Amino acid sequence: xxxxxxxxxxxxxxxxxxxxxxxxLLPQSTVKNKIKEKYLANxxxxxxxxxxxxxxxxxxxxxxxxxxxxVICDNIQxxxxxxxxxxxxxxxxxxxxxxxxxxxxxxxVLDEPDLVLRAKQLRGRTSMEDMALYDEDTALTALCxxxxxxxxxxxxAWGDLLTCTNERNLVRQLRVKLRRLRSSxxxxxxxxxxxxxxxxxxxxxxxxxxLGDARxxxxxxxxxMKIRHAQRGEETVEQVSRLEEILQDYRAKAxxxxxxxxxxxxxxxxxxxxLLTMQNAVLPEEYQEMRLKQFIRLRLNTWCGKLMLxxxxxxxxxxxxxxxKIRIKVxxxxxxxxxxxxxxxxxxxxxxxxxLQDMLGFLHDDxxxxxxxxxxxxxxxxxxVLQYEGAMFCGWERAKAEAALASLPSLWDNFTxxxxxxxxxxx
Length: 427
What we know:
Layout: E1 3-10, H1 17-25, E2 29-39, E3 45-55, E4 61-72, E5 75-86, H2 91-101, E6 107-111, H3 115-123, H4 141-162, H5 168-187, H6 194-231, H7 241-261, H8 264-279, H9 292-308, H10 310-313, H11 320-338, H12 347-379, H13 384-426
Antiparallel strand pairs: 1-5, 1-6, 2-3, 3-4, 4-5
């Protein structure tokens, strides 16, 4: 079976730049050009020049360059694509070719190679089942479709972050995309060799950790803003300007660390290697005859069983370290559940799960905020204004956390009751 991998070029000003790079890498190839214009539903349009490179010698792959535009909802999206179609025997050669392409000055992200499907995605009118390799009769679909779906999203989010000057909201968006990818990877880990799973899990975790510092300062700054809004209308509105000033400074340094530690094409190559692994994986013997839904139900039953036992394993709801472990499991389950559209789950269960996750997230943010601001106060012991603002910040957070903790047991009981009913009926 032939596979495809697509590199989407970002910010190209010269239309011939992409073609020049590929021509230099594939000098011994026959070249065929064609102008394509395709009208889609809702008056959407694909219009581009397609250049096919077929190596003279039998290497097991061919490369297509696409340069043009995609018009979706009257918005023009540039098309600067390098699509590599290859056979399994050519994986190593394709890896080398990707490495050379990503060593160029053009910045790339991974994207869906099917342009019609990509147009539907931009309109929000497609699903995983529309992917070319989707096959409900085999669990291999999880590696060929489910994981690449999240991988493309993570790659594009990296592209947004590393090519944009105002990246504040993009940090959070990327963290969410990486969480979804990691949750899906963990959910389907039994289909991969353990060493492969651990390698990619640690890679995603390393990225998340680098992004985590900037996110923590964003959360603290958001709390500062909420305090100001809550105090509006009072006779005296206490500002947290000194604290915000210091948080902004630390946040800028954390952001610089993220940008300096990650070069876009290096990230894209690591994700491309992951994609090559998924596309060419061989299922373990015990799963080779298993249908996709059968495997998903098997995994969901396992995860549900572990969730039901979390309160026994971590009984102290007032212990923030234990709550953090519960939060990670709950969040991972929610993302995994949303990543398997083959299984029905009621909106009431999703709402209950979201409410629980939000509450656990708020308590975790309060815990981290308290430690973060406490450490800053220790660094400036003689700054009376900062000490006052820091104490006000921590007190405001603590009062809200106490109220949240009181409602947590009922949220947990409601969620586990709904989860048990859903498991009995649908799994």
